[in-house]
Amino acid sequence: MATNPRIKRDLEDRLLDRVEETKERIANDDPETLSKKERVAAFRDKWQNSALPDLPNGVLPGFHLCWLSTTNTYDSIDKRIALGYEPVKASDLGKGFEGLGKMSSGKFEGCISCNEMVLFKLPEEIYQEVMKMLHLEDPLEHQRNITANVRSSAQEGKGGRSILEGGILEMEKEAAKANANVRF
What we know:
The chain is of the alpha+beta class. The protein folds into three domains: 5-47; 63-123, no CATH class; 127-178. Helix content is 51%, strand content 10%. Strands 1, 2, 3 and 4 form a four-stranded antiparallel beta sheet that branches. α5 (124-157) runs antiparallel to α6. The longest helix has 34 residues, at 124-157. The model has no long low-confidence stretch (mean pLDDT 78).
């Protein structure tokens, strides 16, 4: 399968931009000042999605796109379809994406594919709702359970406040701030 030249150029442009920024920073500053985070970001740009085409955000407005494996038995495509995922047909993407591979036969004939992976879409509102649940609400619930356990231990053992209590109160304040208008 040939990678779309536009997508490949986009990845190469991002990497070249990062290289130029790093060269300028090194020329102006001490090379030791490069943070670990910057080095990790550079590696991520170089190696992320090298096996799969990296589709630009907004290529299908109102949908979140992801690649699903036809060989994964634990997280199967049938399970994802039951959750509302739909395969992306080549015709859905329109002009500029003709170079992407398409399944020529079988259950996903005419759908965008790469090796054993098939491109799927999920309405953005459902995706945002699920991400909020998994990455905000569930962790907050876990935090509340930890807070309750620490408080009950403090009450049983000391009859007063736990040393950890101040940190827990700060965690609760930060969690309340984070809960406002989160978007993934």
